[in-house]
From TrEMBL:
Originating organism: Solirubrobacter pauli
GO molecular function: 5-amino-6-(5-phosphoribosylamino)uracil reductase activity
One of the GO biological process terms: riboflavin biosynthetic process
Name of this protein: Dihydrofolate reductase
UniProt domain Bacterial bifunctional deaminase-reductase C-terminal: residue ranges: 2-172
Pfam families: RibD_C (PF01872)
Transmembrane segments: none
InterPro entries hit by this protein: DHFR-like_dom_sf (IPR024072), RibDG_C (IPR002734)
Stretches assigned to coiled coil: none
Signal peptide: none
Amino acid sequence: MPNLMVDFIITLDGYGGADGWPGFWGMEGPEYLAWIGQDSAEDYTTLMGATTYRLMSGFAADMPDDAGMAGLTAMRKVVFSSTLKEPLEWDNSTLVATDAVAAVRELKAHGPLRTLGSVSLCRSLLAAGLVDRFRVVIFPVITGVTGNDRIFDAYPDVKLELVDSRLFDGRLQMLDYVPTVLDGPPGSGG
């Protein structure tokens, strides 16, 4: 398992969410949900920013009997924020109010890490060269009007080497890459 994996679910047009659409854009299927359960059972620490923490801890509080939320509650979580205050209410959550890039450099020595949402945190970690794997699951919808949380805006240029792919439920495409941050387009001398 890589030391740090950025893990996104996105629409075909690159959004992480959309107003009025259900979770997973209403397209999750049994094969994908089973894979999430298996993948979530692996031992890693989850990294997130304050916005994702607020959203997910709220889901966990509202759905304490949901197996997926219970699994997230049981995981080790590191939350990067200058606005949240200790103690964090969501079980197994640690607050880091200092520089996220420096903290993640140190955390990588202690075991595998993954992100949950947190678009700007992921952008910072990728730009700093800390991301070992970049995985996306593409849902076959375009949310040009209702989409929010554009994933790749303000990202650096990145070359991606495909190391794994998988089709779930005949419609969801998982792509797993090793990223290389570029100084500029290939051949530009940058």
